[in-house]
Design a protein that fits this description.
By secondary structure, the chain is an alpha/beta fold. Helix content is 39%, strand content 15%. A seven-stranded mixed beta sheet has the order 2-8-7-6-5-3-4, sandwiched between helices. A three-stranded antiparallel beta sheet has the order 9-12-11, with helices on one face. The longest helix has 24 residues, at 269-292. The relative contact order is 0.17. The structure holds pyridoxal-5'-phosphate. Pyridoxal-5'-phosphate (PLP) binds next to α3. Its cofactor is pyridoxal 5'-phosphate.
């Protein structure tokens, strides 16, 4: 066999690997998975029926243009059909945005710590990541992000609410930031957790997009709508960004099952939003309990909470796992804990209480 191997792009060297949330081990002590910000509710029966019916024709390719889903989304958000672009999860769409805007020599700005896919997909594109630290309060430092813009900047991610801290930026500060961004730099408002936001000062990105041609909004069916395993997300963006997303899409990337399930979910929105309401109540309960135990926890507008634990992060995550719930540690920084089933949240709270006493 030849000693040489195929030449790969140098940009791929040293790419951090995406760490998916650890599953709850079968037969192990950890019965609950609070590590991936998933929706703990099982699929709605009506959505299940749609998926089952759709599965009967998976010998056929899906509708490549996601025509029906796109039309439904356009109506739902009152935007032109040509401004909606679907993809394999919103992370798939984010990657397409990078392919469409950024390459070697270009810069991509985002807060840090934020969604762990940003450095990965930026590096794959060949562009350079410019990470702007969160403030002391774990919020985007939008002034510093605006200061970081250069004539090489092509794209800025604003993760609102931010993963993993759950913090959100408010309307006035976001507008002030956007006023400072040159019109030829794309600002991506990643709103994967939008449906969980209850702070009325946190703007709906779709309203902001309407006024600003360089703003694009990312949304997903993975979280509030509970379709994480089916991989469907979308962007709302002006031309020519939306057109570029259609060019960079993997052909037939969104399965027909995913398209049909997404449409069925939009039509079952009342029921799904009711579930989101219950999760928000549960989130408030968890936050109150943590604060009652003496923790300083940043305000979360998402379906997870962030505990800054520093060196205790890994032992804390291990203790949770032992007690029956898998959480997501970021070694040396903190743990992100998804709001899940009441019993799972109680397991986490009990471990937190024990740790607090030992601090
Ligand atoms: C901020 C943020 N954006 C995007 C995504 C990607 O979600 P999906 O690709 O499932 O739509 C996630 C998932 O965890 C996320 O936290």
């Amino acid at each position: 066999m030849s000693e040489t191997s195929p030449k790969l792009r140098a940009e791929l060297e040293g790419i951090p690997t995406y760490k998916p949330g650890k599953p709850a081990a079968a037969g192990g002590p950890a019965a609950y998975k609070l590590s991936s910000n998933e929706n703990p509710y099982p699929p709605l029966p009506g959505v299940m029926e749609t998926v089952t019916a759709s599965a009967a024709s998976f010998n056929r390719y899906p509708d490549m243009a996601c025509t029906a889903l796109t039309a439904e989304l356009a109506e739902r958000f009152a935007v032109p059909v040509s401004h909606v672009a679907t993809g394999t999860g919103s992370v798939g769409v984010a990657q397409q945005l990078l392919q469409a805007t950024s390459g070697p020599g270009d810069e991509v700005i985002y807060a840090w710590r934020s969604f762990e896919a940003y450095p990965i997909i930026t590096q794959i594109s060949g562009a350079t990541s410019v990470q702007v630290p969160l403030t002391e309060g774990d919020v985007h430092d939008l002034d510093a992000m605006a200061d970081a813009i250069t004539d090489r900047t092509r794209l800025v991610f604003v993760c609102n609410p931010n993963n993993p801290t759950g913090t959100a930026v408010r309307r006035a500060e976001l507008e002030r930031f956007l006023d400072r961004v040159p019109g030829d730099v794309l600002v991506v408002l990643d709103e994967a957790y939008r449906e969980f936001v209850r702070d009325t000062d946190v703007p709906d990105g779709v309203e902001i997009y309407r006024e600003r041609p360089n703003v694009c909004v990312l949304r997903t069916f993975s979280k509030a709508y509970g379709l994480a395993g089916l991989r469907v997300g979308f962007a709302i963006a002006h031309e020519p960004v939306a057109a570029a997303l259609r060019k960079t899409a993997v052909p037939f990337g969104v399965s027909q099952i995913a398209q049909d399930a997404a449409i069925a979910s939009l039509r079952a929105e009342d029921e799904l939003i009711g579930r989101v309401g219950s999760l928000v109540c549960e989130r408030n309960r968890v936050m109150d309990a943590l604060r009652g135990q003496g923790w300083t926890v940043p305000d979360t507008q998402a379906n997870f909470v962030w505990l800054r634990l520093g060196e205790s992060t890994v032992p804390f995550a291990q203790a949770c796992e032992q007690a029956g719930a898998v959480v997501r540690p970021f070694a040396g920084e903190g743990v992100r804990v998804t709001v899940g089933e009441t019993e799972a949240n109680d397991i986490f709270l009990k471990v937190a209480e024990g740790f607090r006493k030992d601090l």
